[in-house]
Design a protein that fits this description.
363 residues; Aminoglycoside 3'-phosphotransferase, Chain: A, domain 2; 2 domains; six-stranded antiparallel beta sheet; two-stranded antiparallel ribbon
């Protein structure tokens, strides 16, 4: 019997458009050569009005996607299928994109692009964390995810690089950075220094800017000579598939996949300033914990990925940028600067970052 669960998109769906009903969804599926029964569930992972992502899971066999997002083309999906093939060869379960009988991936539905992917009937890490936290070791599973990134880079460095850059990329812009004309971390850093100046902290903003500009200049001179890899691009708990044994099984959602400088990618997965600790612990203590965590993490990653000396030097600089201008870190800084118990600590911490030699972040 067909599922009667409502298929109502979230708040980002345009108010002047009608979302597809079950009949239309099954008709869209049929255009790819498949017949469904009508058991359909909607997951709306939209990020905004210009980034709509409706995921219709049909019969637990297919995912029909209606999207309005940058850089999704026939060539892009063909490239992602090649990348998914590498992940499968690597031993991970990852759903592929499915063409229609004419070999086309994309169909149109009004202003939306439509494409189809396989559905993998395995639980997601995020769902288990919410519903069955005792069924697996969260810390050990996340370590498996990090290990997979290092081992994947070791095997596939400089292999079939994508023309689409990943979300952590500096200088070479990802699809979501092109409108602004600068990479996301530069945008984040600009927001941070503007907030400091609004608070009367121009001297600190100037110190950070001088350091930031020097680090970026050194990275820009070296970036195009450093090994790269194409990664899944969004290894968070909502995209991690867990096997019956509680171990990493694979990944879903390759929409953000792209080419990254390998050690830049590592730097961005290394953690932050324990943003969940919202009570003062002292700027020095917060920085010390972060550096200790990074050194442990880097040591592990570089036993699995064999980096050249130039990569290790660059990794220290990329880590400085990630800690100063990464999205979670800047959100933490900006929230603290609004006032409250952490304001003084974060101002001191930013001063320490302005003076921190990036060599101290080098593995």
């Amino acid at each position: 019997m067909p599922d009667s669960t409502p298929l109502t998109p979230g708040r980002h769906f345009p108010a002047d458009l009608t979302p597809p009903d079950r009949g239309e969804i099954l008709a869209l599926l049929a255009a790819y050569g498949y017949a469904g029964t009508g058991d359909i569930r909607l997951i709306d992972s939209s990020h905004g009005g210009d980034d709509i992502r409706l995921n219709y899971i049909i019969d637990r066999r297919w995912v029909l996607r209606l999207v309005k997002a940058p850089d999704m083309t026939e060539r892009r999906l063909a490239g992602l299928n090649r990348l998914i093939g590498r992940y499968r060869d690597f031993g991970l379960t990852c759903p592929a994109y499915l063409p229609d009988p004419q070999g086309r991936f994309f169909h149109a539905r009004g202003p939306f692009s439509v494409y189809l992917a396989e559905y993998v009937d395995l639980p997601l890490m995020a769902d288990l964390m919410r519903d069955q936290p005792s069924s697996f070791d969260e810390k050990a599973l996340w370590q498996e995810v990090l290990d997979s990134v290092a081992l994947f880079a070791e095997r596939y460095r400089n292999t079939d690089l994508s023309e689409t850059m990943g979300m952590y990329s500096l200088f070479d812009l990802s699809p979501f950075d092109r409108e602004a004309g600068i990479d996301e971390k530069q945008q984040n850093f600009n927001c941070l220094t503007a907030a400091l100046r609004d608070l009367g902290g121009s001297a600190l903003a100037d110190r950070l800017t001088r350091k930031h500009d020097a680090v970026r200049a050194a990275l820009k001179a070296a970036a195009h000579s450093l090994p790269r890899c194409v990664f899944q691009g969004d290894e968070n708990s909502s995209n991690v598939l867990v096997g019956p044994d509680g171990h990493l099984a694979g990944f879903i959602d390759f929409n953000l996949a792209g080419t990254e400088v390998i050690v830049n990618y590592f730097a961005n997965l290394g953690g932050g300033f324990q943003e969940e600790v919202t009570e003062p612990i002292g700027a020095g203590e917060r920085l010390s914990r972060t550096l200790a965590g990074y050194r442990e993490y880097q040591g592990r990653m570089l036993t699995l990925y064999h980096a050249a000396e130039a990569e290790k030097e660059a990794m220290g600089r990329y880590t400085w940028i990630a800690l100063t201008a990464g999205w979670p870190q800047v959100c933490f800084f900006l929230e603290a600067l609004k006032g409250g118990a952490l304001k003084k600590e974060v101002l001191e911490l930013l001063g320490m970052l302005a003076d921190l030699p990036e060599e101290e972040l080098r593995p």
